[in-house]
Amino acid sequence: DKKLIGYCSDGQEFKRGLKQVWSTIRQRAPYYVPVVMWLPKYNLSQWLVADLLTGLAIAAVVIPQGIAYSSLAQVPPVYGLYTAWMPCIIYFFMGTSRQLSIGPEGVISLLTGAAVYVGFQDVQDSQTLYDYTIPRAAVLTFLVGIFTLALGILRVGFLDNLISRPILHGFVSASAAIIFVGQLDTFLGFHVSEQEWEKLIGVA
After folding, report:
1. What's the N-to-C CA distance of the chain in angstroms?
2. Per-residue H/E/C for 82-141
3. Per-residue pLDDT for 1 more than 90?
4. Angle, to 10 degrees, between the axis of helix 126-154 and the axis of helix 106-116?
């Protein structure tokens, strides 16, 4: 009898624990997965057509942008297409901004290409180069994702305020100049394998 009573009390405590866990999940879910909060309120008749047209307009920009940025990251163009649509699907569930366009970004693509291209500057065949750069880019992306997730959990986003705006503006301007020079030979229809300033001289 005592064992039976003990089992019953343990079962009740287990049920109470499950209820508490479920209650916590329901309270925290809108914060981490905002789609559960706004999707039930979505008005199909008023917003669907406008959202579809907006999506098509953004796709017309993001798809060629992703293909172009794949060359900066030293990966095949199809990977640029992956980065054009996959982040949008994830952001649909976890994002909070209605105006933000998610996709590949020039500075990140440039830094990725610089990291995965080290040691293979003399490789001329693109397929051979991709055999080396694709695994490197995948590992780098995974590590950056883990690091960013850890920063989000620790809530250290305030560190961004320590970087002054002039430094950010200078960094973005320099990155734009490097991207422009890096694409000059491709834009003009020939290949120069040197680094940016040597490439600029070679193009000239």
Report:
1. 93
2. HHHHHHHHHHHHHCCCCCCCCCCCHHHHHHHHHHHCCCCCCCCCHHHHHHHHHHHHHHHH
3. no
4. 120
CA pair distance 72, 180, nearest whole angstrom: 11
Q: Residue type at 3?
A: K
> What pLDDT is stored for residue 158 in this prediction?
81
Residue with tokens 């499950």: 18
The string of pLDDT tens digits covering residues 70-79 is: 888 888 989 9
d(CA 124, CA 134): 16
| pTM exceeds cut of 0.90 | no
Q: Residues near 157 by Cβ (< 8 Å), separated by ≥ 6?
A: 151
Amino acid at 108: I
